[in-house]
Amino acid sequence: LIFISICFLSYLFYQDDSFSLKNFPQIENLLIFFIFFVLLNQIQHHYWLISKYCIYTLVFFLTFSIPLHFFFLESSMLSATAFLNNFENESYSNKNTLGIYLALLFPILIFQLSKKVNFINSYSLFIFALAIFYTFSRSALILAFASLLLCLLSYEKKLAVTALLISSTIVFCLWIFEITPKKYNEMKIETNIEYFNNYSFDRENSYKSFSSEGARYDYLTKSYEGFMQKPFFGNGFASFRRDNPIFDNQGNYIRSPVTHNDFAQIIYELGLIGLISFCFMFFFNFKSLLPTIKKSESKIKFFQLIILILAINSINLIDHIIFWFIIALTLN
């Protein structure tokens, strides 16, 4: 409530109606998802049931979506389309969000398989792993491996053994198909060329996404510089996109980016006040789990919170339902 109030007040004081593009984050989304968070938290004791419904719904969807993408659409990547609109108009960023969502549910799949090895649990994990790979989202792939690592370090024998077997199977499959990090990056670049229909796509910059030469590092630098100018209250809600347009060498407008990092977005827009209130949400959730941390449910929730923190370092989710869904379900 404190964080949402800070966002709302910042929006009122720094609102700029002259900005022609859609604001990001959107204040109306935050207000709606806060209400969703409050309502969902009232039934969070049904954590396993809600999680299973989410997983089985996704398994059903992916069972049809993956073959349709590969054989019918002949797409080199898996999008988040529900096939209700023209596939060519599908947002490129949505496939990354789908990959992150799958990665956030991955620890639950590992746990289910550790408790009961059957066709449904095995197939669910297989289809999730395949979908995460097929989205060609490096962030989602890293988060999936982070899930396996956390389960390996869980101090639960069955969970650790299951994570080890899954990891070994994945490594074996990568070895069989000769998929190295370099080849994976090349496959990702090919999907970008196909999606943007641009054969002059800058391949070199694609390798720099997570380096100091990449665009994301530049966004982080601008976030820090903006934070240093107004460290306490920030530059105003949704101001980063408004204040940092990108132009080409000829002065032509290209785009108005977001930070691809919620922490960076918050320190730029809301300053220390916003960052502390935002971090407190995670602290409160972790604190609520500690008394029952030896229970499997609390461990999986704990892992999901860690993965969510890692996720928002590579994608903006604070005005997305996925963020509030995980925050609500992991708050005991």
**What overall form do the CA principal axes indicate?**
globular
Span of the ends, CA to CA: 17 Å
Write the H/E string, N to C.
HHHHHHHHHHHEEHHHH
Structural class: mainly alpha
Percentage beta strand? under 5%
> If strands are numbered along the chain, what order do they take across the biggest sheet?
1-2
- The total of helices stands at 15
Radius of gyration, in angstroms, nearest whole number: 21 Å
Helix content: 55-70%
What is the tally of beta strands? 2
Unreliable runs: none
Query: What is the arithmetic mean of pLDDT?
Result: 87
Biggest beta sheet attributes: 2 strands, antiparallel
List the helices and strands and how they pair.
Elements: H1 2-14, H2 27-41, H3 47-72, H4 93-115, H5 119-134, H6 138-152, H7 157-176, H8 181-196, H9 203-206, H10 215-229, H11 239-243, E1 246-247, E2 253-255, H12 262-269, H13 271-289, H14 296-311, H15 321-329
Antiparallel strand pairs: 1-2
Helix pairs in contact: 1-2, 1-13, 2-15, 3-5, 4-5, 4-6, 4-7, 4-14, 6-7, 6-14, 10-12, 12-13, 13-14, 14-15
